[in-house]
């Protein structure tokens, strides 16, 4: 039997782990994130040109980008983009749509109630809870400071 101590084993494992190219990953994240934001700006300009004011155009853009992110996740393209882009695809609002649709699709075989509905917010749920909770706390603090 081959006896190996933990230090040698850790050294062996570290030699086999692929080393990421941080510079290349940052470039891809920047490029893909920039493309997503550019598409968002094009959509905003379109909505503003068809008569929506700035606020309504921004809301329509967010809705459109969420739809595109969910659609691309549903047909399997967004995961391919995410493998290459990393944080460049996660940070924009399309990444939020992906974080809701992906778990729902993964658990769809368990049914619409216990699969899709129950797992839909498994990733995005904590973000929503803490976002709502912190906004309520900030709102209460703001209320008492300005009162």
TrEMBL record:
Gene3D superfamilies xref list: MFS general substrate transporter like domains
UniProt KW keywords: Membrane, Transmembrane, Transmembrane helix
Highest taxon in the source lineage: Bacteria
Keyword Zinc-finger: no
Pfam families membership: SpoVAC_SpoVAEB
Segments passing through the bilayer: 26-47, 59-78, 85-103, 123-145
PANTHER family reported for this sequence: STAGE V SPORULATION PROTEIN AC, STAGE V SPORULATION PROTEIN AC-RELATED
NCBIfam families for this protein: spore_V_AC
Protein name in the entry: Stage V sporulation protein AC
Species this protein is from: Thermohalobacter berrensis
């Amino acid at each position: 039997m081959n006896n190996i101590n933990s230090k040698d084993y850790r050294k062996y494992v570290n030699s086999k782990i692929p080393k990421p190219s941080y510079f290349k990953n940052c470039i891809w994240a920047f490029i893909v994130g920039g493309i997503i934001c550019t598409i968002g700006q094009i959509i905003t300009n379109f909505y503003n040109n068809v008569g929506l004011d700035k606020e309504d155009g921004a809301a329509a853009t967010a809705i459109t980008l969420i739809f595109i992110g969910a659609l691309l996740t549903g047909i399997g393209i967004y995961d391919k983009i995410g493998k290459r882009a990393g944080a460049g695809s996660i940070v924009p609002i399309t990444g939020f749509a992906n974080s809701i649709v992906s778990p729902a699709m993964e658990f769809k075989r368990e049914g619409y109630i216990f699969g899709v509905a129950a797992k839909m917010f498994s990733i995005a749920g904590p973000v929503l809870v803490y976002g709502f909770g912190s906004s309520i706390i900030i709102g209460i603090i703001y209320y008492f400071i300005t009162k």
